[in-house]
Amino acid sequence: MFNKILEFENALAEYTGAPYAISTDCCTHAIELCLLYNDISTCKFTAYTYLSIPMTMVKLNISFEYIEESWIGEYQFHGTNIWDSARRLEKNMYRQGTMQCLSFGHTKPLNNGRGGAILLDDKTAYNKIIKMRYDGRDLAVSPWVNQKHFLLGYHYKMNPEECISALEKLKIYKESNPIYVEYPDCRKIKIDKK
Q1: Taking a C-beta distance cutoff of 8 angstroms, is the pair 16, 24 a contact?
Q2: Which CATH architecture has domain 2-188?
Q3: Statement: residue 1 has pLDDT above 70
Q4: CA 146, CA 164: separation in Å to the nearest integer?
Q5: pTM: predicted TM-score of the whole model, two decimal places
Q6: Helix, strand, coil: what percent of the chain each, to 5?
Q7: Are the beta carbons of 83 and 30 closer than 8 angstroms?
Q8: Using one digit for the tens of pLDDT, what is the confidence trace for 26-82?
Q9: 13, 104, 158, 185 — which has fewest CB within 10 A?
Q10: CA nearest neighbour of 93 among 78, 79, 110
């Protein structure tokens, strides 16, 4: 079944023009993996985003600043090469030298109910993040108990059934212009750690 995950990732990479694609269970976790990989300690981003983004910053102890920035389809975490591209999916959309994080959740361009992905061109980052997203596992080693050394990982993978569904939807996907979605101003919320 792992082949189905790779098949979807390869098709997504080809469609978007990215050298590599890593599927994840959601866009927020895709962003989190990119932030962790890049060891980000500070960044700036739009105040108009989904609640999980500032929560992820708090969770990772990242110092962040909201900025007044409108966006359609995607926005950048300034000071990084990471983009939240949750509301964008277009042929050859990949931007060289970046990590673009996609969402396949409800109301997103490729609505698969859940799931996400990271588009990237850095092979070293690809090789590390692909293990991070699945409990530090090297999927070439089976069964996993034969693997003796693990990178710290997270259980953030799409399952094969979700990848099969997303692949079928990608095959018939019809592009449309990114739709503007009005997000609340996150400067008006307070997040308590406990």
Answers
A1: no
A2: 3-Layer(aba) Sandwich (3.40)
A3: no
A4: 27
A5: 0.96
A6: 30, 20, 50
A7: no
A8: 999 999 999 999 999 999 999 999 999 999 999 999 999 999 999 999 999 999 999
A9: 185
A10: 110
